[in-house]
Amino acid sequence: MIAYVLFSALAVLPLLLYLRNPYFLQDLNYAFTSMLLGVRLNRIWKKSYTILDRFLDKVAAHPHKKFLVFEESSFTYSQADRESNKTARALLTHTVLKQGDTVALLLGNEPMYIWIWLGLCKLGCTAALLNNNIRSKSLLHCFSCCDAKVLVAGAGKIPLYCTVEVLPVLKEKGIRVFILSEHCEVEGIESLLDKIQLTSDEPLSRRLRSNVTIKSPALYIYTSGTTGLPKAAVVTHQRMWMACCLQFIAGVRSDDVIYVYLPLYHTSAFLMGLGGAIERGITVVLRRKFSVSNYWDDCRKYNVTVIQYIGEIMRYLCNTPKKHNDKDHKVRVALGNGIRGDTWAHFLERFGNIHVCECYGATEGNVGFINYIGKVGAIGRVHFLHKRTHPYAFIRYDTEKEEPVRDSRGLCIQVPVGETGLFVGKIGQRTPFIGYSKNNQQTEKKKLRDVLVKGDLYFNSGDLLKVDEEGFVYFQDRIGDTFRWKGENVATTEVADHLLMVDFVEEANVYGVTVPGHEGRIGMAALKLKENMDFDSNALHQHVKNSLPSYARPRFIRIQDELAVTGTFKQMKVKLAEEGFNPALITGPLFFLQDNKGYVPMTEDIFNSITEGTVRL
Ligand SMILES: *[C@@H]1O[C@H](CO)[C@@H](O)[C@H](O)[C@H]1NC(C)=O
Ligand SMILES: *[C@@H]1O[C@H](CO)[C@@H](O)[C@H](O)[C@H]1NC(C)=O
Q: Which InterPro entries match (predicted)?
């Protein structure tokens, strides 16, 4: 009898657990995985074991396994190791680099990117991953942020042009400039490819990187921010490990093949994609650039099983005409961030049962989330263990004053479930915030004090998130002076600085507006013109075309007599962003940047074709 009661109780237990929490098993599995990971990371960090060490161990474990596939060529782990020995030796011979120095890379996706980075790791050097869309002033700024001694630029006309443009300043600072070609005619720029080809591929002594610890900078990755100009986030080897372990949490196995096509200078492709692949010891299929028409053909051709995404990419894929072989592929995991709920559902329905693992986190951030359940639309899930090891809070935020709301004691107020709050991560031993290279002011600006108790210290993510009744976390909005468009961060003040260089512009307020059916926000600017000067569509178009990458160019311009400012003379963006670009609602001149034509007056027709999605933005 007692046995019978016990047995029934045991049988009912799962049901009770399920009713209380339908995700019980997945939560348990996550708890188990993260504990395992925590123990493992603690052990390897004590030994100052870096991702390079992991790579070398994989080379020893399976030298003949394919590491990299690029266009028609492929490289085994052992070949990759030898290629990186060559680049390391070439740099060692032809420069005076020593451990602790930084080398800036201005490269597109190609195998050499990876060989140079691995080579730099072998020399104990740090790589600064420059965005290869940036030019002139921004390029020089990014360069000086990281104190690089050497610049390596890709072969081809554009990188050469950009490099020549800034060459006098670089030379003044005694910086060595290399271009990845076999020869170079330009004085002051040296070719590197020929030197690499002539160098031996013998392994390099560990002594060359003897001083590297888990806290040493491994990379500088640039993020846009409130200053306008990009900031160099310091990615230590420890931080790198955390991002590289996302594949492990997402369930990537050693027989998987990952497709990496996002730019390697971003965290997604470099850390989550390439770094994670090295951690797992798998094969990387690298592509120069995203191509919507080749995407699934590539996946089929290379037997890709894991893809990465940013929200925009998923939408582009869903927007292509349906094909009979849409579900004919081996992709089983998609890892990334920023997919919208509707696109997500559409993606699954169209391309089959793929485990979409949405993650949330900033390059320089100290706490992130992972949606290990696959709940459509959520960026993660509150889990007691995660919260215990990575403390965080959602606090009430005043969007007009642009600061957290504080109570009578001067402390922040946590928002209840279901209410949107600013996400802040507690800075601590396990959750350090390293900040930005040579930019103490911006580093300090990201810190928030006296949050829950006097004297505590948090990292201000700048993101507004919401937690629902079930514990799922949803992205709501981004505060402050950056917005995202086409997967790139756009710093409003940087764009405004460029607009101010145009002779008829007196003041510029740049912000992002939402467009139906698109992730993120598209650029818009409110301008005040100088007295007695007219809006010159052509001049403005030429200027933005020459000085800004296409994703950062304001697509809408409105002219105002006065630009609204707050009591502390900060520009007001929230109201403008809400007003959007509907000509029926906006008084005053309104322009639209039409491809090839420049800024044309906005009409009802243009507005309708944008909202209906018939104009490509
Ligand atoms: C390595 O560290 C030691 C001890 O701090 C220091 O003396 C030495 O100069 C460092 N070597 C390099 C190449 O930085
Ligand atoms: C992909 O898998 C198929 C079947 O397992 C195999 O025949 C083919 O050679 C593989 N292709 C590549 C590029 O590995």
A: AMP-bd_C, AMP-bd_C_sf, AMP-binding_CS, AMP-dep_synth/lig_dom, ANL_N_sf
